[in-house]
Design goal:
Elements (H helix, E strand, L loop, with lengths): L2 H21 L1 H24 L11 H22 L3 H12 L6 H8 L3 H26 L7 H29 L1 H8 L4 H22 L6 H28 L3 H9 L3 H11 L6 H28 L1
Helix pairs in contact: 1-2, 1-9, 1-13, 2-7, 2-9, 3-4, 3-6, 3-10, 4-10, 4-12, 4-13, 5-6, 5-11, 6-7, 6-11, 7-8, 9-13, 10-11, 10-13, 12-13
Length: about 300
């Protein structure tokens, strides 16, 4: 596939996914639920085959990113709560949500430090797994859910996608080095899998938004607009923080690209169901930014060739 075609693949995937979510909502949601985790697993496996376990380290940048994610999320929640609690919840979840399991894929495509991003993805998701039951209980939302049940449920959704691909990559490196080498040299596979998963996830998001009904439209618009502001803000702040440590791309993707599937589950489990519009909208915003960044990257590459 030509470089120009790859540049436009993600926007086309988003547009066709939106159309599929509108015209075939049940079918799109069903396939997204089934295939998205498989595609994320495969993308991460290909990405993990590119690095060595010795490259994984905790860095000062990770502490700053985590502070924005946790403390920043709580600050925004407090600032918006007296305006409207539901809007506050929908915006909070867009900040508190951990780094996407697929973020290393885009980071690698943009030329960022993949080991740095993978390390933060692990830290970010574990922090949410541990802190979310405490924070939501403190807010008094669905306090009847026990800490252990919440912790185990979140871990069961997050850790397999994070840990198993890394474990398989290490196993391939040690036991089947030829297969490991093949995957290491086929990093472009992750791009095509990302395009398919983007088609499915955007389609599911559109299906979800349509299913909320007309009476919720004003509130949905407010939450969606705030999720846009939060999305742009996190990419910007992450880029600034990453710049201090010579890695703008990993900082931006680590803070801006979110695990929206987990965020929607958290919203539906702990918050008012309509707050899930926040992460559902965030899917569109973050992938629009990713598509634009990839376009600029491809344009720069073509100029240099």
């Amino acid at each position: 596939m030509t470089q120009k075609a790859k540049t436009y693949m993600l926007p086309v995937a988003m547009a066709t996914g939106s159309l599929a979510g509108y015209l075939l909502p049940d079918l799109t949601a069903r396939w997204a639920t089934f295939l998205a985790p498989i595609l994320i697993f495969a993308m991460l496996l290909v990405t993990y085959c590119k690095i060595s376990p010795n490259d994984l380290h905790i860095k000062p940048l990770h502490g700053w990113l985590l502070a924005v994610q946790i403390i920043g999320g709580l600050t925004i929640f407090g600032a918006l709560y007296f305006w409207d609690p539901i809007i506050a919840e929908g915006t909070f979840i867009c900040l508190f949500c951990p780094t996407a399991t697929a973020a290393p894929v885009i980071t690698g495509m943009l030329g960022g430090n993949v080991p740095t991003l993978i390390s933060y993805s692990l830290i970010s998701n574990m922090a949410v797994a541990i802190l979310s039951p405490i924070i939501f209980s403190f807010m008094g939302i669905h306090a009847d859910i026990s800490f252990l049940d919440s912790f185990l449920t979140i871990c069961s959704k997050v850790l397999p996608l994070l840990i198993l691909p890394l474990g398989v990559a290490i196993l391939l490196r040690q036991c089947l080095p030829k297969i490991h080498t093949v995957l290491n040299k086929r990093q472009s596979l992750s791009f095509y899998m990302w395009a398919v998963s983007l088609f499915l996830v955007v389609g599911k998001a559109v299906t979800f938004i349509i299913g909320q009904g007309r009476e919720a439209i004003p509130l949905e618009i407010a939450i969606a607009l705030l999720s846009l502001i939060v999305c742009i803000g996190q990419f910007y702040i992450g880029r600034k923080l990453g710049g201090r440590y010579g890695d703008k791309i990993s900082g931006a993707q680590g803070l801006g690209q979110k695990n929206t599937v987990l965020a929607i589950w958290l919203a539906l489990t702990y918050l008012s169901p309509i707050t899930s519009i926040g992460p559902a909208s965030y899917i569109i915003w973050q992938n629009s930014i990713n598509s634009y960044q990839l376009y600029l990257k491809e344009k720069q590459t073509m100029k240099g060739s």
